[in-house]
Amino acid sequence: MHGSVDMATAWSVQEFMYREALALDERRYRDWLAMLADDIRYEVPVRVTREGLADWELAPTSRIFDDDRQTLGVRIQRLETDFSWAEQPPSRTRHYVTNVIVNATDEPGEYLVNSNCFIYRSRGDSPEPSFYSLFRKDTVRHTADGWRLARRWAAFDQSLINAHNLSIFI
To answer: Taking the model in full, what pTM does it have?
Structure first.
C-alpha cells in the first residue's frame, strides 16, 4: 500500500533526486555511484509501437538497460578510460526532473518516487542535440549514510531514439 508522506520527507527525497541528476550532468560518476544502494536495479525497458488496444507498449522482457551495481560500476570504469569511444567527445547532458511525487511503501524507510525526466544531450560541435523524455519509477531508501537510489525503472516516451548511441545514464 502506497501512501502520502510528510512534507519534510518529500522535500528531502526531491532534493536527493535533484542532486543525483546534477552529479550525472557534471559527469561526477563516482559521486553518482556512491548515491546508489548496493542492491540497485537499473532497468529501462524497450518501448514498442503496437496497434490501438494492445495490452502493453513496453516489452515485457527486452531491455535497453538492465544493470546492477557491478555493471553500472563497469560502465563508469569504461568512461574513465581512453576506450570509451561512444563518449569521445563526452556528452553534455542536462537532466530536468519534474512532477516528483513521493509515496511511502510497505518497507520502512523506502519511498516510491514517480517523476518525469527530460534529458538534453549535446556532443562535440554537432548542431543537432538529442532530446529524451522519460517516465521514471524510482525506489529511494533512507540509510545511515543518507538517501540511496535502490531501483530505477525508466521508460522512454518515444519508441525510436534519436541518437547514434545511448551511453548516458538516465
So the answer is: 0.89
